[in-house]
Amino acid sequence: MIEIERKYLVKTNDFLNEYNVKNDICQGYICSDIERTVRIRTKGNKGYLTIKGITKENEISRFEWEKEITLTEATALLQLCDKGVIKKTRYEVQAGNHV
Fold first, then answer.
1. Fewest beta carbons within 10 Å, which of 4, 36, 48, 58?
2. String of b and e for 28-61 (b: at least 16 CB within 10 Å)?
3. How far apart, in whole angstroms, are the C-alpha atoms of residue 71 and residue 77?
4. Which are the catalytic amino acids?
5. Residue 75 class from Cβ within 10 Å (0-12 exposed, 13-18 middle, 19+ buried)?
6. Contact by Cβ (8 Å): 65, 1
7. In whole angstroms, what is the distance from residue 38 CA to residue 51 CA?
8. pTM, whole model, 2 decimals?
9. How far apart are CA 33 and CA 36, in angstroms?
């Protein structure tokens, strides 16, 4: 699968009155070198193992492979992450036909 990364800067907290879904996410990286990243993530009661390839200069897409794993497996793998673990909250907001 090819991933296209899109990032947006949110300037106000107005979305807190409009979001449809709220997800608490915990993630860490087992490998985060220039050529590839291996990420472990928990979201809700599920775990995910994700491998991403290199993003070439002046491009916005890269190879991405993701597999759902158990929460127990993900929690154990998070202990192996080399630079600590990030905790974040993702809010999904409907905007026309897009989320």
1. 58
2. bbeeeeeeebbbbbbbeeebbbbebeeeeeeeee
3. 10
4. 29
5. middle
6. yes
7. 5
8. 0.79
9. 6
Q: Is 94 helix (H, G, I), strand (E, B) or coil?
A: coil
Instruction: Give the whole-angstrom CA distance, residue 69 versus residue 33.
Output: 23
Q: Tokens for 19? A: 């979001």
Residue with tokens 């993900």: 74
Beta strand 21-32 with 85-92 is: antiparallel
The number of beta carbons lying within 10 Å of the beta carbon of residue 77 is 19
pLDDT in tens, 3-46: 676 777 788 888 888 888 999 999 999 988 888 899 999 999 99
Residues 6+ apart with CB under 8 A from 32: 38, 82, 83
3-class SS of residue 74:
helix
Full set of structural domains in the chain with CATH:
13-92 (2.40.320.10)
DSSP assigned state of 2: E
